[in-house]
Amino acid sequence: MVFKKDFVAKHLGKNNLFSVIKAAILGVPLPLCSCGVIPTALFLRKKKASKGAVLSFLISTPQTGVDSIIATYGMMGPIFAIFRPLAAFVTGIIGGIAANFLDKEEEQITDEEDKFECDTCEIEEPHSHTVLERVTSGLKYAFVEFLDDITIQLIVGIIIAGLISYIIPDNFFQNFGGDGILGMLIMIAVGIPLYVCATASIPIAVSLILKGISPGAAFVFLVVGPATNAATITLISRALGKKTIAIYLSVISVFAILGGFLLNYIFTIIDKPELLIMDHTKESSVFTVITVVLFSILLILSIYRKIRIKFKKPELGSEMPNKTFLIEGMTCNHCVANVKDAITGIEGVQEVKINLTQKNAVVDGDYNSEDVKSAITKAGYKVVE
Length: 385
Hints:
Layout lengths: L4 H7 L5 H11 L9 H10 L4 H13 L2 H11 L1 H25 L28 H37 L13 H11 L9 H10 L4 H13 L2 H11 L1 H29 L15 H26 L10 E7 L4 H12 L4 E7 L4 E6 L3 H10 L3 E3 L1
Antiparallel strand pairs: 1-3, 1-4, 2-3
Helix pairs in contact: 1-3, 2-4, 2-6, 3-4, 4-6, 4-10, 5-6, 6-12, 7-9, 7-13, 8-10, 8-12, 9-10, 10-12, 11-12
């Protein structure tokens, strides 16, 4: 709501170290998932941001965010809460530097006519918004759109964590090498194809630690789980090339393991288990009760919205013929907004309805279907024929 996309792109356009560092600084606090970050990265690339800056942004952003930092502190203690964003920052910079040095084959970026894009509303003509309108839009994103993105993942993560705690015996992973390199490699094998956001991965990591996985191996899962998944790998490969995706996966995997060993060493030196998992007593304050009630209400409303959308049929106002496009790689409200923006700008399109649950877009109007498919592909997604 504060920084415009063009302002960001302007600072990431140069092919140098400073642009890579600024991309990592920008990416660490942003609450974007590994799929939601791709359209933003593609926009930066279209605005001539260097591959290094784009890869730095892609690596640092999904690993953590303001929301996950707070949740990490609450569930895993101060060391993890500090170490996660620092590691995301460092790996982002290293990935960006590697891309600038190893992937010098710059593809042709076509100069497209810039059109006005508003981050607050859908009006296409140039205009401005008051501070109150921006604050309102920011609150809507925080408590509606962003919450809708993580609700199901968070609930599933808590359920998985509960099952791990209930079914798996204590110290199970420790007996099978879970506190060394083997545990880290297992976390990489599980985390790379898995789609889990930075917040939803926390309860799973906590339960793994309680069952014998070392803090370093749990950290590896916290890195590769949110930063990668099968859909993201496919989209990045298509948009930035196979060499870039190789750098992306190598940097994340190698430095996740190095970070894991460093974190294990830190806990060995400190030797204070109470700093690993925050202690939760049965006592509760009035503030705790109020926040739990409010958060529960927000979760219930989010689930209700998802159920309503799932069973709601698209209502198109025009009598013009419409067509449904199945879209691969659309996983969150960021994806919905980017796909809608891409399709809306096509000549002849009158109305667009996106259904995130069913992964489709119903487009109404007199338009060329190939133009719609091309716009969706340029936005970083794939139309399923």
